[in-house]
């Protein structure tokens, strides 16, 4: 049996009532909270940091928090997010001077570590670190914004990443981020992903009769 995880990206949530939005998606069946950290340097947008992660923990969120660091440099934010209650911490290899060290920092802090691959970043960064990661995250859009279209070359890249993970024999999650919708998630799963980030697909699905109800879209994903 496959275990699939749905990870709503809170980038598309209503930040004015973030705790409630997170409670709602978790109550509607989401498994983990995808937390996008942008620094207006590594990517051209600015979002949320460790204080907001800590605030969600203090609010009572017990689900895993999947911190996607789009920041450069990364190491300082790794320590801060460990202290703020992160569960997974992933970063882009291009943003770290010492990838092996950054991965080690994450695991030493008791979190699960992962590398994120931009659409044009080669999977070769995995060659010498398969024993040091718990997650591979493939970007299916260029990082920086929600609501972009899925880049179809990611399907072939997912198959290659799936092969590497299976050959390693290790327990490593394969996550996909960007443009995941109800109508393409089947193909994405068949290409080998087991963890699905969805931002706009979930948070734009509020409807008039039940403005907080995300059940139907999460169930269809
Ligand atoms: C983009 C972020 C994504 C984004 C996904 O840089 O990493 O997590 O919020 O949003 P959608 O699902 O709308 O493409
Ligand atoms: Zn993300």
TrEMBL record:
<feature type="binding site">
    <location>
        <position position="36"/>
    </location>
    <ligand>
        <name>a divalent metal cation</name>
    </ligand>
</feature>
<keyword id="KW-0119">Carbohydrate metabolism</keyword>
<comment type="similarity">
    <text>Belongs to the ribulose-phosphate 3-epimerase family.</text>
</comment>
<dbReference type="GO" id="GO:0004750">
    <property type="term" value="F:D-ribulose-phosphate 3-epimerase activity"/>
</dbReference>
<dbReference type="InterPro" id="IPR000056">
    <property type="entry name" value="Ribul_P_3_epim-like"/>
</dbReference>
<dbReference type="Pfam" id="PF00834">
    <property type="entry name" value="Ribul_P_3_epim"/>
</dbReference>
<feature type="binding site">
    <location>
        <begin position="144"/>
        <end position="147"/>
    </location>
    <ligand>
        <name>substrate</name>
    </ligand>
</feature>
<feature type="binding site">
    <location>
        <position position="68"/>
    </location>
    <ligand>
        <name>a divalent metal cation</name>
    </ligand>
</feature>
<comment type="function">
    <text>Catalyzes the reversible epimerization of D-ribulose 5-phosphate to D-xylulose 5-phosphate.</text>
</comment>
<feature type="binding site">
    <location>
        <position position="177"/>
    </location>
    <ligand>
        <name>a divalent metal cation</name>
    </ligand>
</feature>
<feature type="active site" description="Proton donor">
    <location>
        <position position="177"/>
    </location>
</feature>
<feature type="binding site">
    <location>
        <begin position="177"/>
        <end position="179"/>
    </location>
    <ligand>
        <name>substrate</name>
    </ligand>
</feature>
<protein>
    <recommendedName>
        <fullName>Ribulose-phosphate 3-epimerase</fullName>
        <ecNumber>5.1.3.1</ecNumber>
    </recommendedName>
</protein>
<feature type="binding site">
    <location>
        <position position="9"/>
    </location>
    <ligand>
        <name>substrate</name>
    </ligand>
</feature>
<feature type="binding site">
    <location>
        <begin position="199"/>
        <end position="200"/>
    </location>
    <ligand>
        <name>substrate</name>
    </ligand>
</feature>
<dbReference type="InterPro" id="IPR026019">
    <property type="entry name" value="Ribul_P_3_epim"/>
</dbReference>
<keyword id="KW-0479">Metal-binding</keyword>
<feature type="binding site">
    <location>
        <position position="68"/>
    </location>
    <ligand>
        <name>substrate</name>
    </ligand>
</feature>
<dbReference type="InterPro" id="IPR011060">
    <property type="entry name" value="RibuloseP-bd_barrel"/>
</dbReference>
<comment type="pathway">
    <text>Carbohydrate degradation.</text>
</comment>
<feature type="active site" description="Proton acceptor">
    <location>
        <position position="36"/>
    </location>
</feature>
<feature type="binding site">
    <location>
        <position position="34"/>
    </location>
    <ligand>
        <name>a divalent metal cation</name>
    </ligand>
</feature>
<dbReference type="InterPro" id="IPR013785">
    <property type="entry name" value="Aldolase_TIM"/>
</dbReference>
<keyword id="KW-0413">Isomerase</keyword>
């Amino acid at each position: 049996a496959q275990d699939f995880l749905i990870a709503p990206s809170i980038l598309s949530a209503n930040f004015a009532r973030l705790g409630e939005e997170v409670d709602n998606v978790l109550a509607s069946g989401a498994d983990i909270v995808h937390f996008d950290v942008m620094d207006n340097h590594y990517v051209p947008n600015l979002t949320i940091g460790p204080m907001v992660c800590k605030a969600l923990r203090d609010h009572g969120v017990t689900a895993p928090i999947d911190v996607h660091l789009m920041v450069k440099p990364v190491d300082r934010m790794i320590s801060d997010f460990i202290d703020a209650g992160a569960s997974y911490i992933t970063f882009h290899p291009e943003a770290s001077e010492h990838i092996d060290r950054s991965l080690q920092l994450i695991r030493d802090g008791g979190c699960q570590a992962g590398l994120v691959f931009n659409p044009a970043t080669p999977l070769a960064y995995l060659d010498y670190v398969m024993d040091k990661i718990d997650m591979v995250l493939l970007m299916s859009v260029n990082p920086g914004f929600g609501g972009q279209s899925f880049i179809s070359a990611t399907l072939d890249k997912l198959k290659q990443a799936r092969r590497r993970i299976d050959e390693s024999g290790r327990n490593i999650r394969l996550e996909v981020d960007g443009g995941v919708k109800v109508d393409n998630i089947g193909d994405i799963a068949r290409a080998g992903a087991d963890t699905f980030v969805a931002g706009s697909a979930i948070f734009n699905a509020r409807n008039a009769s039940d403005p907080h109800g995300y059940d139907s879209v999460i169930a269809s994903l």
